[in-house]
Amino acid sequence: MAKFTSQIALLFIVVGLVCTFVPVFSVNESEAKSLWDTCLVKISPHCALDIIAIVFGNATINDTCCHDLVQEGKVCHDTLIKYIADRPALIARAALYLKKRDDLWSHCIAISKTA
């Protein structure tokens, strides 16, 4: 039960981070719902936080999260990271974040092929 509670808490953290980093005016309601329905539900909250920490920080990813990321799909990964990187506070380093996004995707594809 404690594990379930912590997973719910992580889900709320991920949703909060996405809401914080995604400007309301850049995502219309139907587009945000589409992203939620097709992308965020495919990946665990823990892995979503790890991916954000990798792209926007200096964290590392484990093989399980790599597999989740590949299952989420490149379009979802690219779109979600682009939305976050387009925040006014982050846009000056958007090129770096997009490169890290692409590097992470390549790394995870390589991990998935070896499993």
Give the helix/strand layout.
Blueprint: H1 2-21, H2 29-38, H3 45-56, H4 63-72, H5 74-85, H6 94-114
Helix pairs in contact: 1-3, 3-4, 3-6, 4-6, 5-6
Pfam family, one: Prolamin_like
InterPro entries: Prolamin-like
Keywords: Signal
Q: What would your notes on this structure say?
A:
The protein is an all-alpha fold. It has one domain (2-114). Helix content is 74%, strand content 0%. The chain has 6 helices and no strands. It has helices at residues 2-21, 29-38, 45-56, 63-72, 74-85, 94-114. Helix 3 (45-56) packs across helix 4 and helix 3 (45-56) packs across helix 6 (94-114). The longest helix has 21 residues, at 94-114. The N and C termini lie far apart (31 Å). Mean pLDDT is 79; it is low at 8-12 and 21-26. Keywords: Signal. Residues 38-108 form the Prolamin-like domain. Residues 1-20 form the signal peptide. It holds the Pfam family Prolamin_like.
Low-confidence stretches: 8-12, 21-26
Order of helices and strands: HHHHHH
Structural class: mainly alpha
Number of helices: 6
Q: Residue-averaged pLDDT, rounded?
A: 79
Count of DSSP strands = 0
Strand fraction equals: under 5%
Count of the domains: 1
